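Box 4.2: Ligand-aware structure prediction
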Amino acid sequence: MAYVISDACISCGACAADCPVGCISEGDTQYVIDAGQCIDCGSCLENCPVDAPHAG
Ligand code: SF4
Ligand code: SF4
């Protein structure tokens, strides 16, 4: 399992700054999570102003 960021993302970068394994990066249109590295901690959802990340 890994978290996934929906298209509600406004590319603020808050989630990437606090991801403990550094698996969130800025993509072409929004931030994206590397599913192979995500440890399902939920920090990205807690930090997101628009609740874009969700459990995959
Ligand atoms: Fe990073 Fe945790 Fe979000 Fe996975 S759930 S992308 S490890 S902050
Ligand atoms: Fe996108 Fe939310 Fe991450 Fe900001 S915190 S980059 S809005 S997913």
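In the box above, the bound molecule is iron/sulfur cluster. The first strand starts at residue 3 and ends at 5.
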